[in-house]
Design a protein that fits this description.
By secondary structure, the protein is α/β, with parallel strands linked by helices. It folds into 3 domains: 56 residues, no CATH class; 260 residues, Type I PLP-dependent aspartate aminotransferase-like (Major domain) (Aspartate Aminotransferase, domain 2, 3-Layer(aba) Sandwich); 126 residues, Aspartate Aminotransferase, domain 1. Helices cover 35% and strands 11% of the residues. Strands 1-7-6-5-4-2-3 form a 7-stranded mixed β-sheet, with helices on both faces. It has a 4-stranded antiparallel β-sheet with strand order 10-11-13-12, with helices on one face. Helix 3 packs antiparallel against helix 11 and helix 6 packs parallel to helix 7. The protein is globular.
Length: 498
């Protein structure tokens, strides 16, 4: 901010610098100069490159540093994205990931020179199997959606192997949005199962749809409403009775750590998100890791290679098993995002069993604290008990012409990243809040106070909210026009109108 309260507009890199400025100096040429025109053709060689910015090194560094300060990250404060579990990453995890033997290990080094890496991956797989109550784990998938795809590929391979080419996958309307895509990519037809008035799967509809053509039910539990499917045992019975398999989207596992093992509830295959539940924040698109855990029925189909251990742990030798004729094959290069696996193992070992259980307790407590405080101000579509996240909607504010997107943008003026909005799709104008266990009560109170103030503004001064954000480096974009044009026009922000 300037002294008069106006907001500085950071220019484009093309608007910085001047003719002749440069950020590099090359040494004198000490080899014969090549005749590029003769090699590449006269039409492919230019004397000058026009249209590129001419800037000095200090101008480039300062420009991108200033832009970096516009970013919001978990170090800034609460990151309440529902269903994303953006928790604090303990710095000990970073220290472990930077150990030279891990950070500088080339993926093409021979197995004999990668014993420590393979031991780490094998140990993490065993711990994840124990935490989830499953029989085997693959760490190959590089994201949750990649894990979904891997899991459904194994389901498809299983039914093809036993001679039952089933065509349908059932997906509750409260599931994660990538579930139908994963099923369809594998050649299945996705069929939606509605939720009941309590926000859980409608069992009568499930029984009616669960035919012998159904390969699996893809269930998110807790679902995207933050509600635990309390009849999960009965759900599994219905699916298994017709020969189907239960796939569980484990992206919300932060609510269950140390409390419920999905494998004990009838789940046959699930994916986890190491970058959510096990502490590596994934803002900005990565890095991610989506391990898949399976029961014995699907173990033969695990991706290649499978890490094996020979001998006792004290003097074990680790190798890679490619001799698995029913495997779905490779689903990526090497063993996924190895650095995320290092951080996850560090997190699990440093927390221990009691610590993991405490994580879920605090995550559930924080979500319910926010729910209780905001219930008088925001409409709650489903009133069932919630676990790690709570979903409100904008019904009260919409009566004054203020939509959920407007409130999300107004929250930026209070220094918070907005929660997930407009999802899950079964809630019109959804406001999906997940505080995780990382946040102290004081930070939650600041967020709650901001949300309550915005709810009041929506009623007293709707235009104030509809014009937000007002104090950010970039004001609200013309989103309708921007959706039609490849280039966005950045508009300088106006001073706060309050």
């Amino acid at each position: 901010m300037s002294n008069d309260g106006t907001t500085f507009r950071e220019p484009l890199i093309f608007d910085i610098g001047g003719e002749g400025r440069t950020g590099y100096a090359l040494p004198p040429l000490d080899v014969p100069e090549a005749d590029l025109a003769a090699v590449l053709g006269e039409g492919n060689v230019r004397d000058t490159i026009r249209g590129f910015p001419e800037v000095s090194e200090v101008e480039v560094v300062r420009h991108y540093y200033r832009l970096s300060k516009w970013n919001y990250c978990i170090e800034n404060g609460l990151y309440p994205l529902g269903s994303c579990t953006m928790k604090h990453n303990p710095r000990i995890n970073e220290v472990m990931a930077r150990i030279p033997g891990f950070a500088e290990s080339h993926p093409l080094r021979p197995t004999s020179a990668a014993q420590g890496n393979l031991e780490l991956l094998h140990s993490l797989s065993e711990l994840l199997a124990e935490i989830t109550g499953m029989d085997a784990v693959t760490l190959h998938p590089c994201a949750g959606s990649h894990g979904e795809l891997t899991g459904m590929m194994m389901v498809k391979a299983h039914f093809d192997h036993i001679g039952e080419p089933r065509q349908t996958v059932l997906i509750p309307d409260s599931a994660h949005g990538t579930n139908p895509a994963s099923a369809v990519i594998c050649g299945f037809q996705a069929k939606e199962i509605p939720s009941g008035p309590d926000g859980c799967v409608d069992l009568e509809r499930l029984e009616a749809e669960m035919t012998e053509d159904v390969a699996a039910l893809m269930l998110t539990n807790p679902n995207t409403l933050g509600i635990f499917e309390k009849q999960i045992d009965r759900i599994a019975e219905i699916v298994h009775a017709r020969g189907g398999l239960v796939y569980m989207d484990g992206a919300n596992m932060n609510a269950l750590l140390g409390k419920v093992r999905p494998g004990d509830t009838g789940v046959d295959v699930l994916h986890l998100n190491l970058h959510k539940t096990f502490s590596t924040p994934h803002g900005g698109g990565g890095p991610g890791s989506g391990p898949v855990a399976v029961k014995k029925v699907l173990e033969p189909y695990l991706p290649l290679p499978v890490i094996i251990r020979e001998g006792e742990p004290a003097d074990a030798c680790y190798g890679e098993d490619y001799d698995r004729p029913r495997s779905i094959g490779r689903i990526g290069a090497f063993f996924g995002n190895f650095g995320v696996a290092v951080r996850a193992l560090s997190y699990i070992l440093s927390m221990g069993g009691e610590g993991l259980s405490r994580i879920s307790e605090m995550a559930v407590l924080n979500a319910n604290y926010i729910r209780k405080k905001l219930e008088p101000h925001f409409h709650l579509t489903y009133h069932s008990p919630v676990l790690h996240e709570v979903v409100f909607d904008d019904k009260h504010q919409a009566a004054h012409g203020v939509a959920v997107g407007d409130m999300a943008k107004r929250l930026l003026d209070f220094g918070f990243h907005p929660p997930t909005v407009s999802f899950p799709l079964i809630v019109q104008g959804a406001i999906m809040i997940e505080p995780t266990e990382s946040e102290p009560r004081e930070e939650l109170d600041r967020f709650i106070a901001a949300m309550i103030q915005i709810a009041g503004e929506a009623e007293r001064d709707p235009e104030l909210v509809k014009g937000a954000p007002r104090s950010t480096p970039v004001s609200r974009l013309d989103e309708v026009t921007a959706a039609r044009k490849p280039v966005l026009r950045w508009v300088p922000a106006e001073p706060d109108g309050e």
